[in-house]
Design goal:
- This protein has one domain.
- It is 85% helix and 0% strand.
- The relative contact order is 0.15.
């Protein structure tokens, strides 16, 4: 379990840095998706810490169920903000440095999530809850990267394509998070 604590602390720090970057971009550009992404990552980081605290106190019971409920609540918020950003026309383009920082975070987290999924031998409830929180993290990170890249590097003639891609990918991420949320609740109830 100590290695899990170190890994979770490291990803907590990474999540909070990424959340702060998203908050800053969102506030500077008045972009609701980036502001929400900052909140989303802050909540996911706190969720991981709560799961660890429950695990250390020996209160693993229903950790999965609570994780699933929180993921579903975040998913409803994600669907709302994604829908809101589809209606708004005022999204801004981002510079190369911002795009590089988003891409760096996404690919770093993707590697970490894949390595954890491959290495995981223990199937304790707390470790599994932390892993599915990581899946939600990476799904939203890929959505943010895709939206930002299309917005920044797309041309005016591709506006309809960008709009459709953002709707499709936003819906796919929302469905994925809903699926893992429901899965966590069912796994928590069935033990």
């Amino acid at each position: 379990m100590p290695l899990t604590v170190i890994n979770t602390a490291a990803t907590f720090a990474l999540n909070m840095i990424y959340a702060a970057i998203n908050w800053a971009i969102g506030l500077l550009n008045l972009n609701p998706l980036f502001m929400f992404t900052g909140v989303f990552y802050s909540v996911l980081a706190v969720m991981k810490c709560i799961v660890l605290v429950f695990a250390f106190r020996g209160k693993n019971r229903r950790v999965m169920e609570k994780t699933g409920v929180l993921l579903l609540a975040l998913d409803f918020a994600l669907a709302f903000v994604t829908g809101l950003s589809m209606v708004e026309e005022g999204e801004s383009e981002h510079g190369e440095i911002i795009m590089i920082s988003i891409a760096t975070y996404v690919f770093t987290r993707l590697v970490i999530v894949i390595v954890k999924a491959v290495r995981s031998r223990e199937e304790g409830e707390a470790l599994f809850a932390i892993r599915i929180i990581g899946y939600a993290e990476i799904a939203v990170a890929v959505l943010t990267l895709q939206r930002s890249m299309l917005r920044t590097f797309g041309t005016e003639s591709e506006a309809m394509f960008v709009h459709v891609m953002n709707i499709v990918s936003g819906a796919a991420v929302s469905l994925f998070i809903a699926f893992i949320g429901v899965y966590a609740i069912r796994k928590g109830k069935n033990g």
